[in-house]
Here is the input.
Amino acid sequence: MIRLAPSILSADFARLGEEVRAIETAGADLVHFDVMDNHYVPNLTIGPLVCEAIRPHVKIGIDVHLMVEPVDALIPLFAKAGANIITFHPEASRHVDRTLQLIRDHGCKAGLVFNPATSLSLMDHVMDRLDIVLLMSVNPGFGGQKFIPSTLDKLRAARQRITAHTEAGGQPIWLEVDGGVKVDNIAEIVAAGADTLVAGSAVFGAPDNDGGYRTVMQQLRKNAGKT
Ligand code: DX5
Ligand code: ZN
Here is the structure.
């Protein structure tokens, strides 16, 4: 069982309510919500007001990916705005353990995001506090970039750590991938251990007039099964 999380970074921002309803109808499991601050990453996107605005349009969870520095002040705001999952980059928080705890204290699932060059060892001492681990398969900041192939080895390594943790009695941890996920590479990404797939341009690049989102998502799911 995999989860598909279309990233609204590639949606039509002038029709965001319609766009999130369309991906829910087309079978999305989560709305991936990319928050960029022009400081931690060189781009500027959307904040809690937009999260609150789309919340009533869908029942599926909102997966907030914070590419901001600092992190903590935004957590209560996103929790209040209806976020279900909040992930952040460890480099952007002075106190990673405290930030993870803060997210759970606000009733959301908490996760760490690993940039292509960030070591997985940063999760070692906070495994108990993680609901999700997100590996970036592009450098964060923009949609439509190419999948970095070395992410596959990193996924296998992350999967091993998570399996060891759960086999030792730890809580389940989702393994998410973000960046360059397409119909033609999703099989190898899932085979390497991912269970939650972000796809921005792959989904929203399809024309929605004739059920295009549904067609792409069905292809993603079908290919994900071919491992
Ligand atoms: C990049 C974002 C991604 C992006 C993915 O910084 O975190 O979520 O929207 O877009 P695609 O799927 O087009 O690579
Ligand atoms: Zn993202």
User: Anything to note?
Assistant: The first helix runs from residue 16 to 25. The domain at 3-224 is CATH 3.20.20.70 (TIM Barrel). The first strand starts at residue 3 and ends at 6. The radius of gyration is 16 Å.
